[in-house]
């Protein structure tokens, strides 16, 4: 059976592996959150203005403004359920979603001091959304607790240890990650923390090489990172490309994100195609779709239209997304079989 491109991409089972919950909140949803949390609620025009920025620093400020309006369990539940609904429409059947736990802790210290169970209550709302979303749309979800590297090592330790503790009750907490500004804090200071997280059964992801050079990717690998977000600068180091190919380290690539934050000039110049041709384990993701104006479905379309990906190569990207996921082997094989049948 032959489908047109849009139908083909939509019907292609996909996993999204680099997706920030907070970055899925559309302006209209932000207005609803503002009505719940702000003394003077934002207008839609106000909300849309937040999403206009020209560089990575501007993106971080916008991300902060959105996150500060996620006040409690109900707000997080609303955001997560709408995210799952959006994923289902695109043919995404599994997602491993970053929650900016480091942001919650760092920017809300006074509230957290008054209520030590604050995040546990928030997470209960996220779990309600996850369970309801799986029932309603058939999308499975894992959570990755994301620390913010430039908030300090002790702050990150707090996030990682909370993940290890809560995972005993919630198996949906699959791993940890280091987001934030690589220009301020590298990976080496978190080496012991990554070892401790691995010993507790958590999987290890890391943002590396987005705003920094290849040395940041080498460093992320050296502390045990299993999966790398962005890895944009690897293309500048042939030895690193060879090492990534040898290890088959999964790369969570986000071309439109890199364009919008100004670290990559255009989709055509993104190393996605070069990485695939070099035999690397590449996956395609949206990162923060509401901020960057591109869903994972659209990233597949752009790969086809701009970088000349064939349908078979799009199927390879989809297969890679499951092979690179933290799903059990049986679930991976089920989805790989489905892809092979298209």
Strand and helix layout:
Elements: H1 5-11, E1 14-20, H2 27-37, H3 44-50, H4 56-67, H5 73-89, E2 92-99, H6 101-107, H7 109-114, H8 118-137, E3 140-148, H9 153-167, E4 173-179, H10 191-199, E5 203-208, H11 214-222, E6 227-230, H12 238-247, E7 251-253, H13 255-260, H14 272-277, E8 282-284, H15 289-292, H16 296-307, H17 311-323, H18 329-340
Parallel strand pairs: 1-2, 2-3, 3-4, 4-5, 5-6, 6-7, 7-8
Q: Would you write up a description of this structure?
A:
- It is a single chain.
- The protein is an alpha/beta fold and 342 residues long.
- It is 54% helix and 14% strand.
- It has helices spanning 5-11, 27-37, 44-50, 56-67, 73-89, 101-107, 109-114, 118-137, 153-167, 191-199, 214-222, 238-247, 255-260, 272-277, 289-292, 296-307, 311-323, 329-340, and strands at residues 14-20, 92-99, 140-148, 173-179, 203-208, 227-230, 251-253, 282-284.
- Helix 11 (214-222) links the parallel strand 5 (203-208) and strand 6.
- Helix 5 packs parallel to helix 8 (118-137) and helix 17 (311-323) packs antiparallel against helix 18.
- The longest helix is centred in the middle third of the chain and has 20 residues, at 118-137.
């Amino acid at each position: 059976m032959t489908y047109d491109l849009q139908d083909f991409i939509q019907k292609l089972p996909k996993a999204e592996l680099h997706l920030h919950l907070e970055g899925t909140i559309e302006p209209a949803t932000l207005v609803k959150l503002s009505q719940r949390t702000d003394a003077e609620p934002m207008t839609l025009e106000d909300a849309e203005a937040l999403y206009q920025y020209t560089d990575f620093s501007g993106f971080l400020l916008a991300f902060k403004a959105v996150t500060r309006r996620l006040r409690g369990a109900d707000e997080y539940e609303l955001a997560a359920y709408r995210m799952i609904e959006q994923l289902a429409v695109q043919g995404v059947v599994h997602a491993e979603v970053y929650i900016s736990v480091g942001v919650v802790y760092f920017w809300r210290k006074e509230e957290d001091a008054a209520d030590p169970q604050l995040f546990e209550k928030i997470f209960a709302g996220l779990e309600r959304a996850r369970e309801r979303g799986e029932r309603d749309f058939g999308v499975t979800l894992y959570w990755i607790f994301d620390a913010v590297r430039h908030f300090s090592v002790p702050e990150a330790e707090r996030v990682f240890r909370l993940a290890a503790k809560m995972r005993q009750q919630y198996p949906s907490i699959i791993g940890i990650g280091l987001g934030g500004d690589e220009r301020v804090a590298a990976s080496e200071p978190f080496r012991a923390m990554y070892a401790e997280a691995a010993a507790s059964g958590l999987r290890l992801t890391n943002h590396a090489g987005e705003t920094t050079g290849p040395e940041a990717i080498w460093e992320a690998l050296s502390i045990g990172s299993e999966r790398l977000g962005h890895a944009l600068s690897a293309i500048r180091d042939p030895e690193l490309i060879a090492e990534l190919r040898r290890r088959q380290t999964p790369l969570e690539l986000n071309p439109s994100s890199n364009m919008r934050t100004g670290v990559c000039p255009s989709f055509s110049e993104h190393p996605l195609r070069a990485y695939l041709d070099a035999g690397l384990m590449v996956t395609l993701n949206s990162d923060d779709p509401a901020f960057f104006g591109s869903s994972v479905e659209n990233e597949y379309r752009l790969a086809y239209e701009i970088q000349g990906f064939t349908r078979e190569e799009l199927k390879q990207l989809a297969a890679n997304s499951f092979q690179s996921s933290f799903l059990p082997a049986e679930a991976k094989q089920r989805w790989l079989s489905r892809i092979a049948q298209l």
